[in-house]
Amino acid sequence: MGERRSAAWFGASGRAGMIHRSWMRSQGFGPEVFDGRPVIGIATSASELAPCNVHLDRVAEAVKRGVWQAGGLPLAFPTMATGETLMRPTAMLYRNLMAMEVEELIRANPLDGVVLLSGCDKTTPAMLMGAASVDLPAVMVTGGPMLNGKFRGQDVGSGTHVWKFEEELKAGRMTEEECFFAEGCMARSNGHCMTMGTASTMACLAEALGMQLPGSATWPAVDARRFETAQAAGRRVVAMVEEDLRPSAILTRTAFENAIRVNAAIGGSTNAIVHLLALAGRARVPLAMADFDELARAVPTLLDLMPSGRFLMEDFCYAGGVPVVLRRLLESGLLHGDAITVTGRSVAHESAEAQCWNDEVITEVGEPFQPAGSGTAVLTGNLAPEGAVLKQSAASPDLLTHTGPALVFDTAEDYHRVADDPDLAVTPATVLVIRGAGPKGYPGMPEVANVPVPAKLLKEGITDLVRVCDGRMSGTGYGTVVLHVSPESATGGPLALVRTGDRITLDTPARSLTLHVPDEELAVRRAEWTAPETPYESGYTWLYRAHVLQAHEGADFDFLRGRRGSAVPRDSH
């Protein structure tokens, strides 16, 4: 290959080269590191404000070892940490900002390649989006799941058991003191959620896409092999610079088709849809909501993991991890084996020797945990013209086909204020409609769609209702919840026109979501509708609302789709 990109900084003659090298030497680097070796950026989202990412500085040290071993120069730099655990109103509001930051930091600095260190769920897609747009050699290293939660002799899952314990508390079967003790039992170590929530899903999909080293997605955050993986990634990215292997060669249509099918096989989060759509937009790969339904229908759910099943990520790891899923899908003709990974070799090659050590955790395609077609369904109809999604494996089978009267709330907060009211006009047949939770409306499309079942019904033993929302739900959540209704209510989508008492039909087998109101009446309501007022007249949130795309387009910014490359606009030196 020709002269390295970093040579424009460190190989420059005269004043420009002296400035760049001398300030780097203030950190203690000797002159030999400016000999033309690959300069590798290590983008770390470590932050004490993002508990899932807090250990990534240690992971970065392991990456550095690998880069040095391979003859590169490692330089770590911080990025935002969009942790859903603390950020308000939602980390999703800041995913695009983080993606923009990652892209611009890579482009603006003397880097030949980059290792991306992520943890909580939005950091993984944000980093991949930024790297795809700048298109320099890149390897993802996710931070790994927490150790399995333990409470009273049982495995408990982060997120998933939050909702379960809340239900028990509201039903009077658990005390506040017991809940307080249990919450510490869920979070036993560094790492992201150990259920198949969005963080675990996106880690697995980064591997399925080929952007993470084979077998590396599932090692627990505190396992020594997590750091071995990071060291190997540091070595590998140096070789990728030599080979000029870029994300554009890995993030192809076949890679995205593989990721969609793997998401179905692992019982992955519905949030993967909005993140993969956004990433495909950056990679210039045509991808639509309908693809997720069409490609997943033939794929059975192989993993018996929470929130859909019994086990947790530690169990998945020790059973063989993502390579076993890939091998089983490949042997059934459900994946593209020729898709290239960051190793430079194909998916088929990398998974050929994978062995399963626990068929209860990773079931066989012929005897799956759940049958083909039970993954995430994409619904359309007059209530969701551009689509909506439903995670069938986490829903109640008896509610997958359901007709009932709507009970409408303009915000999730409006519902929470009355959810415990014993006189709330709700029955098991009710369809709860929560609107105002879409990308523009909230703003940020928060994880509020799986609102708790009213306390009145919980005390009667009713644990699920059909819920319809233009927002998202945590990948650790469960229930018969229709999500990502598009277009959203804040833009005047049909969800904005629903009134309490209207009848709604969810017909999952037919992939339809229908509002039983005549078109003439809907036209009258539309004429009377006014857009909700917004207090945002400046700042980032104003920018977000002005430029965010709808859920079926990935909720990215309209001006960030596509690649912009690695060329620096101007050289001030």
TrEMBL record:
InterPro entries: Dihydro-acid_dehy_C, DiOHA_6PGluconate_deHydtase_CS, ILV_EDD_C, ILV_EDD_N, IlvD/EDD_N, Sugar_Degrad_Dehydratases
EC number: 4.2.1.9
All residue ranges annotated as the Dihydroxy-acid/6-phosphogluconate dehydratase N-terminal domain in the record: 37-348
Domain Dihydroxy-acid/6-phosphogluconate dehydratase C-terminal: start-end pairs: 360-555
Gene3D superfamilies in UniProt: IlvD/EDD C-terminal domain-like (3.50.30.80)
Domain of life where this protein originates: Bacteria
BP-aspect Gene Ontology terms: branched-chain amino acid biosynthetic process
GO molecular function: 2 iron, 2 sulfur cluster binding; dihydroxy-acid dehydratase activity; metal ion binding
Sorted UniProt keywords: 2Fe-2S, Amino-acid biosynthesis, Branched-chain amino acid biosynthesis, Iron, Iron-sulfur, Lyase, Metal-binding
Name of one Pfam family that matches: ILVD_EDD_N
Keyword Amino-acid biosynthesis on entry: yes
Family note: Belongs to the IlvD/Edd family.
UniProt xrefs under PANTHER family: HYPOTHETICAL DIHYDROXY-ACID DEHYDRATASE (EUROFUNG)-RELATED, HYPOTHETICAL DIHYDROXYACID DEHYDRATASE (EUROFUNG)-RELATED
Protein name: Dihydroxy-acid dehydratase
